[in-house]
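Why predict the complex rather than its parts? Because the way molecules touch one another can change local conformation, and only a joint prediction can capture that. The input here totals 772 residues.
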Amino acid sequence: MPRLASTQQSCWDAPLFSMAYVLHIILLLLYCDTIHSGQSLVKVIEEPTVLSPQTIQLLCNLSDIPNNPPTVTGYWTKDGQEIENSKEAVNRNNDQYIFKKTIQAADVGNYSCVFRENDAQVTFVFDAPVMKDKRDKPIVSYIGDTVVLRCTLKNTPKTWNWYKVNNTEKDLINVTVSPLKYNIVIHQNVTKLSVLNLTEADAGTFICSAEFDIKSIESYLELRVLSLLEPLKPFLVIVAEVIILVTLILVWEKCKPGQDHNTATTENVLYTEQTSKLTHSDSNGMETTTRQRKTEQ
Amino acid sequence: MPSDVTDLDYTPPDGGWGWVVVFASFISIGFAYSFPKSLTIYFKEIQEHFIISYSEIAWVSSIMMATTYAGGPVSSVLVNRYGSRPVVIIGGLMVGVAMMTASFATSILHLFICVGVIGGFGLAFNLQPSLTITSKYFLVKRPIANGLAMTGSPVLLSVLAPLNQFLFDNFGWRGSFLILGGVLLHCCVAGCLMRPIKVKLAVKKLTHQTATEVDVTHQTAETVNIQGCVEKVNRFIDLSIFKERGFLIYLVGNVVMLLGIHAPIVFLVPYAEQHGIDEEDAALLLSIFALADTVACPVTGFLASTGWIRPNIQYFFSFAVACNGVCHLTGSLLTGYVGLVVYTVIFGSTWGMVGALKFEVLMDLVGAHQFSSTVGLVTVIECVPVLLGPPIFGLLVDIFKDYKFIHFTSGGMLLTSGVFLFIMNYYNYRQLENEEKASKKEIQISSANQLPAREEANDKEAPVNMRSEEATYST
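Output of the joint prediction:
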């Protein structure tokens, strides 16, 4: 039964070779029992994190092919497209077929090694890290108010930049040019842009860009600026409704003075009052001994 | 016998307009309990805006809850003086205006004062009068009324949570606060519905019976001359309640209970997330909790009004508290999402049971007449465990890094509290029975002593008569 073996070691844990900028990725052992040649592809996806430019060697290890041919053919794909001249005949080496490729980390994308014989494939997804705490909905603020836009990343980038989208163009926000309007604070992996004295023109999309050596990661934040009249309308509707209800209730009460529902009569009780210790018993005439009870009948 | 079942000098209607009052209390109590909790959705944004830490913004909720509890005595005084209706209306106005002002806040201090202090007092003026007026309108069906009124808390929380989310997405925190101010004005509407009870004074007849004759003679006309500071305070709030044994038992049991009861709900979502449940499913747990609470509250009220449980309502309450404890102790053993859901359902139900009975039991202890003053004192004392509980447990989490300890500690506290209440109430009932028997004996003894005295008096008259007869004979 063909088995595609792959082992992976985390990029930062312990590189096998200490050769500068070369990382060996050893692939994890996985089972693909259900693989039959020509049938469903087993896709194994690994996602290492890469932050700086370096040379990376990808290694695929295929073992246990039926018939044990002396060579197998394999090729690499990037992002689903076959890479030119990547087809190679891999020689058998102690019942294993080891297929290597060296790439630059800057060439981010999805790399897959595919073996023609049984269509087994392993995919390496190389991409830069994603933004944390993404805000899908627009941030709402008001004219004259201040708003703080914030981007967080798991790793610390080289620099952060903020842009404002202006009709499909990105304008860099420069704090020194307009210090009364913008303020940028950077704390390693967190950046905050404060927009002061908001106006309607400030509404729109802002982009925070985390710049790494290989790639920049961007995140979009939408800002909406409202005038105070906007929430005032529903507020006034609600207040009007409350006033109407209150008026109705009080008028109804005044117009029906003979309601006996909330009146109660004193019965023929000998009224004994003690200011401090009052006695009480309740429920259906059943005596509760929760408190002392003096009754007059 | 309806005539002697209450220390109020009237028979409560137990229905009619009373159900409208229950609805009004439902709204008031609902806002009072759920509003501080529902504000947490705005905290992140406000935290960014004012550049403060999360613990600072969390103070807003804490101050609001603290003032709601601490404002109890003030509320009691006003209700004793003016009745429930004006106090609730003013409370609604206060909290509405507070939120409106808060929407224009320029610093976190404004929020502390507006939302925290003024809003908190406004809610205090809603909570306590609602409970008082329920006790004035109901007697026989009072547990049901209380159960229904307390259901306001989970129901309004379920309404406020998505409403707040909607408002926040569309209007940001400032606009939302403004609109919430309007929403809270509905407390005024609730206040308008709380019509005061009008009592028609009927002619009082004196009835004599031998057993009670001595009581009549022992009655001194109690014109209470109010002198001194203590008496003046007693006019507003009855502090002598602290001498009552049953009340002290209730207080001690409640303080221990409240220390432990809030923490599991506060940490429910992080606990679920620690077990690998994702955020949305964990938030669903809270909704399940609220649903279980909504069902359990009125059902418990209904159960408590049945003939079998009503006389033993103190035991029922201690049973509910103990159930809560057992639920936490065993619930922490359940794993998986299904296990967590089961735990949440049971937790919500027991929480609802305790909530429905909490004030009913107090009314049962002190009676409707004194309830108004007492509940103020109770809430101000309960303020301490309510505020201290979650932070202490949070500290435990930080130290042990495992939420299991919360469940064990909280479960242990609740179980202890429940058992304590059970045992002490049993003891209290026994003491009361003994005291009653002793006082009955005294009555019998003193009336027996009076008989020979009367016979002597009769005998003294007789020889006089005989002598006069002799005199007539002699002449």
